[in-house]
Design a protein that fits this description.
With 126 residues, the chain is mostly beta strands. The chain has strands at residues 4-7, 10-13, 18-24, 33-39, 46-52, 58-60, 68-73, 78-83, 92-99, 115-116, 120-125. The chain has no helices and eleven strands. The protein is globular and about 40 Å long.
Amino acid sequence: QVQLVESGGGLVQAGGSLRLSCASSGRLFSSYTMGWFRQAPGTEREFVAAIRWGAAATNVADSVKGRFTISRDNAKNTVYLQMNSLKPEDMAVYYCAASRFLGLDRAPERGRYDYWGQGTQVAISS
């Protein structure tokens, strides 16, 4: 069983940076895809970025491309989301998710993930 715990959220000024972490309590296999999603009040949960656990390949949403970077540390069973040049529209609850079998081309499909974390709040002050 995989349990995901996010951390690293908080309040930051526009233009600032945050690094989110997602730690897994269960073993992650090379077939897993790890994703980050976010949800602002009154909106649907939207895809941010994903990475294959067994490879360096990533998929990053156009809205954050060039500002956000997803990475992983296999030894620590942890996925990271480095967020730079934050904008007010980035404010949301950020969720980590894991899928046992999912290609990166389908990573934005939130219904295909098997495990979800509780989320971590990111607030941006302008």
